[in-house]
Amino acid sequence: MVSCAAETPVVREQADTAPLDTTVPDTTPTELPVADSTEDAETTPIDTDGADSDAPDVAEVVDVPKDVPDPPDLEDAIDSVAGDVEVVEDEELTAPDADTSDADVPPEDTGPPFEPPIGTWWQADSMVTPRERAAAGAYGGVIVVAGGRDYAGATLGSVESYAIVADSWAEAPLPVPKPMPTARAAAGAGMVVDSAPGGLGGRLFIAGGLGADGATTQVLERYNPGSQNWQGPPTGFKGLSKPGCCGAGLAIGDQLWIFGGHDGDTSVLSYQPTAGIWISHSPLPTGRSHPAAVEVAGDVVVVGGASVDFPDLNAPLLDAAERFDRDTEAWTALPPLPEAVTGPAGAEHAGQVWIFGGQRSDGTASDSVWVLDLELGWAAAPSMPGPRAFHSVVTTGEGIWLLGGIGAEGVLGTVDRLSFPPPP
């Protein structure tokens, strides 16, 4: 408790004395003796009846009239000293609230806006050939991976098939896949599914990419996982209008979409297999190479990437996230990815966007997993078993599969699956 106390006035009582002697005393300075110590000093008692005849002359005090008022009461003295200050008893005095309207007050850390679903990581059988920037798709219980680059940087044309039930690349219930007609890496690819009666089922479409000579290509090819057949030029497939690579390929129904591309391209393209044509759409607000693209709630969310295909060490990367409305062709900015990366992988689960890994500006791969709720923002999920960048991703009923990529020790052949418990 804080209390307010005024200093008590000192009241001096006047003694009865003789009338004042007006004789001017001798003012010649007198040297006073200094005792060696207070212990040895001899003290003369004070004569209260009269002045000591040997003491120096002093002025006598005039008698105080008898009608002098009594000293003020203590409470009145406090009031006169304290003025209008209010004395508060048994309460703690607090200062008035300060005006913090212009103060730079950091926001209170309330933690993540939501808790992402908790999944379980499983290590699957590894690919026969480690690869990064490969095309991938899944259909009918089989995962197909095509092309990419190996640990030596060589561009691959080989294809591998993985049987989900058997958890094996070597014992897939299919013959050994035929290689790609055009070896390439960093192509826009997706497993396009034609589910209409009499439709073709699942077909892996691969467009553009970096060829064996390092140059971009505009070739479009289609792979049938069942028959192992490749179809492409000169059989009538129309390739990209210009050579390109490094965009985010995404299969949406019976169409292949590509977002961004070579050296920060802003183009958005969709291929209509039934009509055999490419359609250009509203461009990206932020041009980017090697982003992640995820279909969610009927729209597409594009995240991360870089302004060039192969950024220099410590060059700035992109954290921008943007949402594309396929009905209106309008783009909307979303909260930025908490970690700017290029070459992440993205997938949808439970109506949320999941972003896995990617390469940081210092050249290292990230093991982070970020989850975007379109209403609440970003939250961190448990990390991947190991860091990855430029890896492939497919989604099946068994979970989200991450394949290959670049890790802490180079190009990877490992495959990890994130599975979730079935909804109640």
Task: Describe what you observe in this structure.
The protein has 424 residues and is mainly β. The chain has 1 helix and 25 strands. It has a 4-stranded antiparallel beta sheet, with no helix packed on it. Strands 5-6-7-8 form a 4-stranded antiparallel beta sheet, with no helix packed on it. Strand 23 (406-407) and strand 24 form a beta hairpin. The model is unreliable at 1-66 and 87-96 (pLDDT under 50).
Strand order of the largest sheet: 1-25-22-21
Helix content: under 10%
Distance between the termini: 57 Å
Largest sheet report: 4 strands, antiparallel
Structural class of the helix and strand makeup?
mainly beta
In what range is the share of β-strand residues?
A: 25-35%
| Succession of helices and strands | HEEEEEEEEEEEEEEEEEEEEEEEEE
C-alpha Rg (nearest Å): 44 Å
Count helical runs. Answer: 1
Number of strands: 25
Report the average pLDDT across residues. 81
Overall morphology: globular
Low-confidence stretches: 1-66, 87-96
Concise account of the structure shown:
The chain is mostly beta strands. The chain is 2% helix and 30% strand. A hairpin with a 2-residue loop joins strand 2 and strand 3.
Secondary-structure map:
Elements lengths: L73 H9 L37 E5 L10 E5 L2 E5 L12 E5 L24 E7 L6 E10 L5 E8 L6 E2 L16 E5 L2 E7 L3 E8 L4 E4 L11 E5 L2 E5 L17 E4 L6 E4 L10 E5 L2 E5 L12 E5 L3 E5 L10 E5 L2 E5 L2 E2 L2 E2 L3 E5 L5
Antiparallel strand pairs: 1-25, 2-3, 3-4, 5-6, 6-7, 7-8, 9-10, 10-11, 11-12, 13-14, 14-15, 15-16, 17-18, 18-19, 19-20, 21-22, 22-25, 23-24
